[in-house]
Amino acid sequence: MNIKNILLGFIITLPLLTSCVGDLDVSPLDSHIQTADKIYAVKENYKKSLFKIYSVLAMSGQEGAGSSDIDGLDAGNAQFYRSWWNLQQISTDECINAWPDSWVREVNEMSWTSKNNESIEGVYQRAMYIVAISNDYMKQTTDGNMSKRGIEEDFWPTVHGYRAEARFMRAFAYYILMDVYGNPPFITENNYSTAPSQIGRDKLFDWIESELKAILAELPEYGNVEYYGRATKGVVNALLSRMYLNAEVYTGVARLDDCIKVSKEVINSGYALAPKYADLFKADNNRAEVAKEFIFPIVFDGTKTQSYGGIRYLIASSRGPKEVSIETDGYKDGWSGNRALPTLVRKFEFENSSRPTASTIKDSRGIFFDENRSIEIDTWLKTFETEGWAVYKFTNLNSDGTPGTDAYSPDGDVPLFRLAEIYLNYAEAVLRGGNGGSKSEALQYVNDLRKRGYGNESGLIAEANLTLDFLLDERSRELYWEGLRRTDLVRYGYFTSNEYLWQFKGGVKNGTSIESHRSIFPIPASDLSVNGNLKQNPGYVNQ
Fold first, then answer.
1. How many helices (H) and strands (E) does the chain have?
2. CATH of domain 1-218
3. What is the rounded distance in angstroms from the CA atom of residue 531 to the CA atom of residue 537?
């Protein structure tokens, strides 16, 4: 991993996050500061250095959308959120991409190898970069170093809180690595090595869990506006909820009781569903009545977070150049890339199921564009404008219909965790036999989501209808294109098996099963070639 700017005494620029949150709107550090001792001798730089860690979620580099902090890694295709989203969505029953790029075919058809796939490389390298700069932050901000650099002791508790945030970001990066790659290299500030070893997926799970529990006391509760887009107790418990729901995949041991427990802690923390589903994905989704559902968003701003990934990717890739406009989207750029597979569209209820149209979906969560488009897809390549409905869930329009601040860099924040997911996690853990919850309460949470979607009680279901397969479909209706689908399908045993098929799964038009080892991605050959301590995941070779 060839990192250009790793916080080891280099200049840190931070045109970060949104103007709507003043504390995250920071200026670059003094260009003459070059050493860690000088950087960390100034109190203000402790927060700025912390925000550099957060910035990796939103931006590829420090010098605009086309820059990259990592040598050899494309600033667009290999942006963190964009590449992670590709692996989580384009490999599933919810999405297919029309571009001819080699990496696209591999992800569409689930035929990837360990070499030369920009999305596989992008997730891995960006997540390891978060680990690297978090580790350095932990090394530089010890009490001993603060004392040596003349930082007053009354400021140390503030830094202890910053350190907890850095630890969360590191734990989150390791969660992504654990989920996507199974057994990545493991390194902290305490076991520094240029060739780190692996510790195993189960042990990594244990470490992440222990880290998250250890930092809880240092983080604020929900409701502190200064911490919008930053780590709080809520997102720690939300990440634990997601981990516990998938624990059997990661460790072989179910943790359903724990999932129910932490999910209830999140639910009872003050978060609330936004009144309108569509508002969650608009340019002004940081408004209080909407953002109260967000547990942890990636914060974007049209003028301060220039990126080809994140919210820009979600909007531009889902529209064609002839479909997009300031009036309809608050945006000008259409890339003709991602659209819905029929398996996603048909999860929604239509007024006339024999003649489905986008305008007759009963559930307001189904936000599609179908003009001159078929539901079915005969060939994924270069058929964006004619085959497959476009997903218009994300937009750069404000809730009042006015456009965002920039026609090419949208303002909307991307939710990584929101309350709706926790409702569904709780319900699934109960249905799978977890203790500490009730099916009646699970039903209420599911129906709360459906009532919002339908706008009335017509979409409510009875307890007898609340099954695991129904819940998987409901997760798709509520959370589609939010980066969770692959993880859900793996948990259900559907990602690789022939029990559940979708178009082009396994490279076959009507779908087929694939090798079970593809439930995780390979460690990139580029890292294996420079680190002899790493072993490739079973089933993959370094071709």
1. 20, 6
2. 1.25.40.390
3. 14
Neighbours of 224 (CB within 10 A): 11
Q: Residues with Cβ < 8 Å from 508, sequence gap 6 or more?
A: none
Name every residue whose Cβ is closer than 8 Å to that of residue 397 and which is 6 or more positions away in sequence: 282, 283, 328, 329, 330, 403, 404
Which of 404-436 are b and which e, b meaning 16 or more Cβ less than 10 Å from the residue's Cβ? bbbbebbbbbbbbbbbbbbbbbbbbbbbbebee
Locate tokens 């006015």: which residue?
A: 402
The single-letter DSSP state of residue 61 is -
d(CA 342, CA 371): 15
Instruction: Name the amino acid, one letter, at 379.
Output: T
SS3 assignment, position 101 = coil
Query: Dihedral of CA 413/478/178/516: which sign?
Result: negative
> Nearest 5°: CA angle at 520, between 298 and 6?
45
**CA dist 405 to 61, 64, 82, 282, 464, Å?**
21, 17, 22, 12, 47
Separation between Cα atoms, residue 391 and residue 386, nearest integer Å: 13
Tokens of 197: 């070893």
What SS3 state is found at 448? helix
pTM of the predicted model as reported, rounded to 2 decimal places: 0.94
| Domain residue ranges of the chain, discontinuous segments joined by + | 1-218
Q: What are phi and psi of 269, to 5 degrees?
A: -95, 0
In sign, the C-alpha dihedral spanning 428, 433, 435, 437 is positive
What pLDDT digit, counting tens, does each position of 216-240 carry? 999 999 988 899 999 999 999 999 9
Length of the chain: 543
Spatial distance between the Cα atoms of 54 and 134, rounded to a whole number of angstroms: 10
Query: Which residues of the chain carry a pLDDT beneath 50?
Result: 1-31, 33
- State pLDDT tens for residues 15-34: 333 223 333 333 334 445 46
The enclosing H or E element of 248 equals helix 247-251
The beta strands (E) that lie in 309-446 are given as 338-339, 368-369, 390-391, 414-418
Q: From its phi and psi, is residue 115 left (phi > 0), alpha (psi between -120 and 50) or beta?
A: beta
Closest CA to 62 of 304, 353, 375: 304
Please enumerate in sequence order all residues whose Cβ is within 8 A of that of 261, keeping only pairs 6 or more positions apart, or say none.
436
Instruction: Note the pLDDT of residue 192.
Output: 84
Burial 266-295 (b: 16+ CB within 10 A, else e): bbebebebbeebbbbbbbbbbeeebbbbbb
Residue partners of 84: CB distance under 8 A and separation at least 6: 119, 122, 123, 176, 180, 483
CB 119 within 8 A of CB 83: yes
